């Protein structure tokens, strides 16, 4: 087929794949809907030309009536067989996502996404695939921007979805719904429709079914304008971050109460434009929260955010002290001090979501631990997780990505020796006052991490007999690299 004979959809898909994928193994996530069916068909058509191998995975979330959801799985398996693409359907037990959502405090949509990506990464490891491909389109980009506008996001939040991030590729981002349906019609391909897409109790469905038609009727050019806005805001966010980092550099120090804080000259701070002062406050929060991801792999720290408008007002305040949610900004003797708000510290929970392997840092001040040093978390692609701090030699246990490190909640139980036990039930009396972090993945709680009054780090991981009480009790000290175990 010559360049002039090539299908326009497949040409755009090829461009969306980016650099050469020759001899690479791709894993396509296919729900059975129009977007993912068109992506799978296009990828299969380009397979020989581009020189990659192709696999498919379908995730059944257990949220809809079995006849409908199992029908989706059968349709995907049938199409994959027709296209000669190896495919696997993975089923989440009914009720598991709802139960997890209730226990974690997250919504159904976010929890389903958590499960889905955990399965995608697991399948990628099983196949040793190079990339996971998802069928996000230009319409998804627009819906995301609208949602974030309605939630009051700043410039960084309005940036468009990226075509690639780590092992994730989104090759359809330059294609819209009209392009998708035209291609399916040309290829005589059928697709499934999720019945929950009509449920306007979900924010995204409200946007898609109510707001988008309204915008189409009254503002026909809104899509182009919104994408232009997103690109501009992305550039603005990068500029503000770089400029604030250069012009307003926080000095790490200790306050009168020996807690870590950030300081800067009041004169220097207030010489900067208001928007840079706001950005500097947000950068300060990131530093004090101690959730920097040193591998650059996108960890999310989900404590209650400082509203951007509130932060902007406080940054311009002439008072001596301002509460910024989890932060306290003080002005005294020509110095501005930024520190975590003690009044909220005991009530504020935290959640650190890790989606990909890498080295992460969690400051113990965030979860109430003593001292100012940090807890280091290293996660391997094999699922091996190592916890390190200055008092320990290293504790090893297994997790299944994605994984959440969070505050403890009433009712938390871990499977030990065939029994589900609470943390208090596996601690000895000398360690009852230990400070706790709960590690949770899709299969439930994988570990309890504790720091006792003597500063000893302890990890009790599931399905292992633990004898807590001593230094590094309940964890495996790292002596040499452990071989990866297949899941």
Please supply descriptive tags for the structure shown above.
6-stranded mixed β-sheet; 6-stranded antiparallel β-sheet; Rossmann fold; disordered C terminus; alpha+beta
Describe the protein in words.
The protein has 3 domains: 3-135 and 170-198, HUPs (Rossmann fold), CATH 3.40.50; 248-345, no CATH class; 351-477, no CATH class. The chain is built from 15 helices and 24 strands. The chain has helices at 8-17, 34-50, 66-82, 96-104, 108-127, 138-150, 177-186, 203-218, 222-247, 266-271, 274-289, 308-315, 342-345, 364-367, 423-426; strands at residues 25-29, 53-60, 87-91, 131-133, 164-165, 168-169, 251-254, 260-265, 300-301, 321-324, 327-332, 335-340, 351-354, 358-363, 374-379, 384-388, 395-398, 403-406, 414-416, 419-421, 435-441, 444-451, 457-461, 476-477. Helix 1 (8-17) crosses helix 2 (34-50) and helix 9 packs across helix 11. Residues 291-305, 344-348 and 465-487 have low confidence and may be disordered.
């Amino acid at each position: 087929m010559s360049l002039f004979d090539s299908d326009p959809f497949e040409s755009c898909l090829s461009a969306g794949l980016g650099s050469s994928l020759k001899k690479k193994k791709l894993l396509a996530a296919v729900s059975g809907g129009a977007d993912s069916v068109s992506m799978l068909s296009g990828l299969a058509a380009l397979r020989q030309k581009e020189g990659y191998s192709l696999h498919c995975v379908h995730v059944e979330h257990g949220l809809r009536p079995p006849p409908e959801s199992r029908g989706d799985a059968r349709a995907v398996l049938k199409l994959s067989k027709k296209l000669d693409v190896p495919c696997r359907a993975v089923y989440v037990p009914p009720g598991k996502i709802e139960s997890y959502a209730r226990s974690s405090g997250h919504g159904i949509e976010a929890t389903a996404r958590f499960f889905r990506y955990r399965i995608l990464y697991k399948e990628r490891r099983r196949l040793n695939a190079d990339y996971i491909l998802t069928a996000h389109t230009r319409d998804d980009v627009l819906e995301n921007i609208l949602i974030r506008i309605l939630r009051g996001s700043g410039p960084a939040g309005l940036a468009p979805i990226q075509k690639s991030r780590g092992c994730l590729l989104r090759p359809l981002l330059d294609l819209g719904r009209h392009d998708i349906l035209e291609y399916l019609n040309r290829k005589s391909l059928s697709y499934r429709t999720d019945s929950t897409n009509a449920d306007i109790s979900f924010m995204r469905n409200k946007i898609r079914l109510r707001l988008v038609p309204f915008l189409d009727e009254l503002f026909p050019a809104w899509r182009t304008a919104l994408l232009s806005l997103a690109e501009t805001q992305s550039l603005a966010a990068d500029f503000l971050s770089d400029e604030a980092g250069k012009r307003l550099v926080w000095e790490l120090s200790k306050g009168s109460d020996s807690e870590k804080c950030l300081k800067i000259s009041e004169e220097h701070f207030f010489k900067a434009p208001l928007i840079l002062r706001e950005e500097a406050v947000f950068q300060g929060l990131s530093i004090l929260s101690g959730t920097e991801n040193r591998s650059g792999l996108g960890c999310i720290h989900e404590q209650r955010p400082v509203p951007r408008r509130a932060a902007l007002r406080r940054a311009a305040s002439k008072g001596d002290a301002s509460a910024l949610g989890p932060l306290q900004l003080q002005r005294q003797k020509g110095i501005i001090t930024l520190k975590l708000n003690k009044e909220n510290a005991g009530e504020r929970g935290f959640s650190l979501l890790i989606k990909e392997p890498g080295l992460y840092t969690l400051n113990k001040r965030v979860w109430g631990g003593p001292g100012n040093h940090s807890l280091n978390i290293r996660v391997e692609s094999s699922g091996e997780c190592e916890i390190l701090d200055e008092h320990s030699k290293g504790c090893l246990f297994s997790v299944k990505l994605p994984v959440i490190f969070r505050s403890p909640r009433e009712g938390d139980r871990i499977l030990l020796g065939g029994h589900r036990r609470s943390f208090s039930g596996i601690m000895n009396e000398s360690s009852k006052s230990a400070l706790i972090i709960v590690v949770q993945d899709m299969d439930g709680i994988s570990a309890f991490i504790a720091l006792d009054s003597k500063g000893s780090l302890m990890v009790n991981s599931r399905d292992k007999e633990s004898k807590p009480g001593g230094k590094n009790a309940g964890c495996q000290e790292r002596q040499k690299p452990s071989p990866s175990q297949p899941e």
